[in-house]
Amino acid sequence: MASAVRSAGSSTKLIAGWYTNGVVPNAVSGQVHALQTKDEAATLKNVDSLRRYAFNASNRQFLSTKNVAVLAKRFAHTDVRFPNYDNYRYEATKDPHQPARATEDARRGVTSAVVYGVGGMVTLLAARNVVQTLVYYKAMAADQRALAAIEIDMNKVPEGQTKTFEWRGKPVFVKHRTAAEVKRERSVNISELRHPEADEDRVQKDEWSVVIGVCTHLGCVPIANAGDFGGYYCPCHGSHYDGSGRIRKGPAPLNLHVPAYTFKGDVIVMALINDLNVDQLKVPLGFIKIPQLILAIIAFSARSGFQFSATYTCKDNSTHAITHGGFDMADSDYSDHFTTCAGVPIGLITYDHSTAARFFGFISIVSILFVIIMLFLYLFRWGAYAGDERLPKLDTAITMILGVCWFLAAWSWWHATDVLTNETSPETIGKAFETKKFCDFPDVKDCHLKTYHDTGPLTVSVLAGFACLILFASNIWFAYKETAWFRERNSPSQPQQGP
C-alpha cells in the first residue's frame, strides 16, 4: 500500500516497512514510528516537514499502517506552502522568548486608541446638543431670553380659533378646538397617514393643540385655519395639515412638531428647560433607561470588588503577606510584592486581565453618561427630541454601537474573571507556591500557606454586563421607532402635489 505526496516539486512515497523521511520501520511488521527531528519552525514550508512534525506530535507512540495511510491521504494531491507573515508583525513580537504580556501595549495600541477614540467621540456628540442649548440660552439678550420661556393665557384663544405666538424665535400655533373638531381628528384612520400618529398622542388636553408653525418640507410658515383638512396650509408647495398638525396631503414628509409644554391652571407654559415630565417613563423608550442606568452603575462598581490575599511562613519564622484588591492585577505590575523566602521577586499571577477590565469599565462609564443625557432629553426636552430628526437617529446609532460594545465587553470580561478565579483559587496558588518555590521548606505544607479570594463581585459585574447587553440590544428597536427611517418605511406612499 503506497501513497504519493507532492511537495514543492518533490515526491515522497509512504509505504509500510520502507524507509521514508523522518520515519523508520519498527521490528514489528506493519508498524512505523517517527524519529526525533531537529527541524526549526522555518522548515515547515512543505508537506514532508509537516508530516514529520505530525508524527512527532503523537508522543512518540507507535502508529499503525492504517494511520500512516490516512495521514498520507490527508496530504495527497495538495501543494501546500505556508505563507510567512513576519513582515506584518510588530518588531516587539518577533522575539519568541518574550512573553505575550510584555508586548501587549504594542499589539493593542491601535485597537485601544480606536475604541477609546470612538467611544469618546460618541459621548461628546451626545452631550453637544445639551451643552449648545444651555450656552445658547446664556448668550441670548434679555429680550430674546424672555421669549425662550413664555406663558400663554388660554382665555385669549377663543374656541374654534388659532393664535400665533413666538417662542425661541419660532412661531407656535395654539388651537382651541371644538368638540366637532376633536371628534373629526379622532376618527382618522392612522394607517392611512404618511406620518402615523394618533391625535391623543399629540395633545395633552383634547380641546387644545399646540404645534410649531414651521412646515416640515422646506421650513416655511403655514397659514392657520386653512387647507383641505381644516388645519394648516403651506402655500409654498401645497402641504395640507389637519387640526392636529398631521400631514395629510402635499410634499411635507412629517407632521408639525409638538413642542414641550405644560398646563398650569389657565396658562400654557413653554420654557427652555421644562418641568419634569414623567410621561416618557411610561413608554418603553424612556422606561428601559432606568434599568440601563442602574445595571451600568452596578457593572462598573462591582468590577473593582475583587480581593485576594495569601500568607506564608519561612524557616526564620518571618511571615510574608500578599494582598491585593481591585481589577488591574498583572504579573508584571505586582511582581515586587510576590517575593520568595529568599527575597527573590517572582510573579504569581500569570494572566493579565487589565485590558478586559479597562474596556469593560470604559463602556460602563460611556453608557452611564449616555443614559443620563438621554433621560434629560426625554424628561425635560422631549419636544426638542421629537422635533429634531437628528436626535432620534443619533439615539438609535449610539444605542446600536453600545449594544455591540457591551457584547464584546461582557464576553471578554467573563473570560478574564473566569481565568482570574481559577488562578487565585487555593489549589492553584498552592501548586504555584510549590512549583516556584516561594517557601524554603522542603514541603510546602510547612509554610502554613493560607489564601483567600473573593470573586463574588466579579460574578455580579459579569451578570450586570450581560444584562446591559440585553437591554441595549432591545433599546435599539424602541429608539428606531422614533426615527424618520421607521416612519418612511411604514407610511403609505401618497402622490405629491405642487402649487
UniProtKB/TrEMBL annotation:
Domain of life, per lineage: Eukaryota
Domain Rieske: 202-270
Subcellular localization, as worded in the UniProt entry: Membrane
GO CC annotations, alphabetized: membrane
Pfam family, one: MARVEL
SUPFAM superfamilies to which the protein is assigned, alphabetical: ISP domain, ISP transmembrane anchor
PROSITE patterns named among the record's database cross-references: MARVEL (PS51225), RIESKE (PS51296)
MARVEL domain location: 280-484
GO molecular function: 2 iron, 2 sulfur cluster binding; metal ion binding; quinol-cytochrome-c reductase activity
Membrane disposition: Multi-pass membrane protein; Single-pass membrane protein
Primary location recorded for the protein, binned into one broad class: membrane
InterPro entries cross-referenced by the UniProt entry: bc1_Rieske_TM_sf, Marvel, Rieske_2Fe-2S, Rieske_2Fe-2S_sf, Rieske_Fe-S_prot, Rieske_Fe-S_prot_C, Rieske_TM, Ubiquinol_cyt_c_Rdtase_Fe-S-su
Family affiliation: Belongs to the Rieske iron-sulfur protein family.
Protein name listed in UniProt: Cytochrome b-c1 complex subunit Rieske, mitochondrial
Protein species of origin: Bursaphelenchus okinawaensis
